[in-house]
Write a structure and sequence with these properties.
Chain lengths: 246, 319
């Protein structure tokens, strides 16, 4: 079984977000970067589990500069077999998906995994785009995936419930919470990661069709209005008359 | 022309479809264009989309559209967009819309923005939209430069506007490939508004001390007509079902009113709820970080405060 896992690098979940004074770029001073949690905890770990059980390989793919190598090495330490980095600045989702699909199309992966979204741009688009470029089925927000031969059974989170689906390989899936449990790489994994195959590939030409041009921070809350715990009628009045939400 | 894909669940529209059509007509007005809606499969009363501004409603009826499969739906919507000469395609930012947006972008070679929260700024012939990024901690303005523009509209951002009348539904002749995804079963919680669609949410955390105490939370939710939610530690401890977990790794919500009971307000929790319009925090610890993100706060013992609030809500609703 051949699996490809798409990973991205994002600011740590506890990061305080700020931008350059002109609002054009993310300010990465003092920010620690991690592998996008959905890519790591759910997609990559489930991919590793499937290969440990059924045999095969897990390849990591990332679109970015050399500053992403540390994040990719962590993925190797968690259990991936090898890694590919497409050496390009990841400015737009369609560009990223095109790069991944170009690499993947000649490799005959059984499953392409990605996280349900990245916690920086929250677009949730790359998986669907890769699936379209590869002309494969796409199951999004999967919280469970089991495979028997070429047939996979998945649970997909939908509003207020789950869908239970069956699909044949090859397909693309985006992983949500529930798919697997976070894995902390051990010392042996970290040592082995250093000698695992790691390729850097040049990108293909492709335009950026939708890009962020300006960032702003939301209006700060003006300060909490405290209501006495003995006067819940007052809270209801404020929610009705002032906030107009009940 | 603005094409809106109005999605239906089991043949019925939800608010998201009407919001998308409202967004579509308002965008059409900015561009001096018109807005038409597309429905797929068997849909009840599709003509009502005219009420929200669609000048035409098209339907594609095909057995392959009975269940949602992003590959089949995207193929049909892309054909419709090309056939009708759409320059902007609007989807809802739901589990369906999110799965379609990327596929359509690849198919139509179009720039796309997921989860937009503003009408486009079309000054100077451009097309710029805002969306939440960094899990709601910031807002980004995106510029789309392709001839066809794709957006999915975040829920609860655009107030519904009825501007017109019901219109006739025309069938549109496009082909649908057969699905390669088999739906074995759909399990839905009946009778509750799903969290991503909820307008009012009552949520509780570790301060509740145990699952046996949730009655007061449910009573308050019932009085408000709200959906219940919980923090991550509560879901991880199996005090509450996992689908109730709101936060960075759980469900991200954007209700009008979010009431947080006994939740300290860790940054990962805030990432899932910070797009709520009004936040009320009830906590006995005045230093709880959540108060900094709240509009209204009550410092007190939740076991006393919550039942009192429920009574006050009931009294208000009865008056």
């Amino acid at each position: 079984m051949k699996i490809l896992v798409c990973i991205s690098k994002t600011p740590d979940t506890t990061s305080k977000i700020s931008f350059t004074a002109d609002g054009a770029k993310f300010n990465d001073a003092g920010i620690s970067f991690i592998m996008n949690p959905y890519d790591e905890w759910y997609a990559l770990v489930r991919a590793c589990e499937l290969v440990e059980k059924n045999g095969g390989t897990v390849t990591l793919i990332n679109v970015g500069g050399a500053d992403n190598d540390q994040t990719i090495r962590k993925g190797l330490a968690i259990g991936a077999t090898d890694a590919v980095r497409i050496d390009a600045e990841p400015k737009s989702a369609l560009f990223i998906a095109k790069q991944i699909a170009e690499y993947a199309k000649s490799q005959n992966y059984d499953i392409v995994f990605c996280g349900k979204e990245s916690i920086d741009y929250n677009g949730s688009e790359v998986g669907a785009m890769v699936a379209e470029y590869l002309d494969q089925p796409f199951v999004s927000y999967a919280s469970k995936l089991d495979i028997n031969g070429n047939t996979a059974t998945l649970e997909r989170d939908i509003e207020g419930g789950v869908e239970i689906l069956e699909v044949q390989t090859p397909f693309v899936v985006s992983a949500a919470k529930g798919m697997a449990e976070q894995r902390i790489p051990n010392m042996m994994g970290i040592m082995k990661a250093k000698s695992k195959p790691f390729q850097v590939v040049a990108p293909v030409e492709f335009p950026d069709l939708a890009v962020p041009v300006k960032f702003t921070l939301p209006k700060e809350k003006t300060g909490v209005k405290l209501v006495s715990p003995d006067d819940m009628d007052e809270l209801v009045r404020l929610l009705h008359e002032e906030a107009k939400v009940i | 022309m603005i094409l809106v894909f109005a999605e239906a669940t089991s043949g019925h529209f939800k608010k998201a479809a009407f919001e998308a059509v409202t967004y579509g007509i308002q965008t059409a007005n900015l561009l001096g264009s018109q807005c038409v809606a597309l429905t797929l499969g068997k849909v009840e009363n599709a003509g009502q989309l005219g009420v929200y501004g669609a000048s035409k409603v098209y339907n594609v009826a095909n057995e392959h559209l009975a269940n949602f499969d992003s590959q089949v739906y995207a193929a049909v919507i892309a054909q419709a967009a090309e056939k009708l000469g759409a320059t902007v395609v609007v989807l809802s930012h739901t589990s369906t819309g999110k799965s379609l947006l990327g596929r359509l972008a690849a198919r139509l070679k179009a720039g796309s923005v997921a989860g937009v929260k503003s009408l486009p700024d079309v000054s100077g012939g451009g097309f710029k939209v805002n969306k939440g990024v960094y899990s709601g901690k910031a807002i980004a303005t995106y510029e789309i430069s392709s001839p066809i523009k794709l957006v999915s509209l975040a829920g609860n951002e655009i107030p519904l506007q009825s501007t017109g009348n019901e219109v006739a539904v025309e069938s549109l002749d496009v082909t649908a490939p057969s699905s390669r995804v088999k739906v074995l079963d759909v399990k839905r919680e009946e009778g509750i508004v799903p969290l991503p669609e909820a307008v009012t949410v009552v949520s509780a955390g570790r301060g509740m001390k145990g699952p046996e105490n949730w009655g007061i939370v449910e009573d308050l939710a019932k009085a408000l007509g709200a959906t219940t939610a919980c923090s991550r530690p509560v879901a991880d401890a199996d005090w509450r079902p996992h689908h109730e977990h709101v936060g960075q790794t759980g469900v991200a919500i954007r209700p009008n009113l979010y009431i947080a009971i006994g939740i300290s307000g860790a940054i990962q929790h805030l990432a899932g709820v910070n797009q709520s319009k009004v936040i009320v925090v009830i906590n006995k610890d005045p230093e709880a970080p959540f108060f900094k993100a709240a509009d209204y706060g009550v410092v007190g013992d939740l076991f006393e405060v919550v039942p009192k609030l429920t009574e006050a809500v009931k009294k208000f609703k009865a008056s």
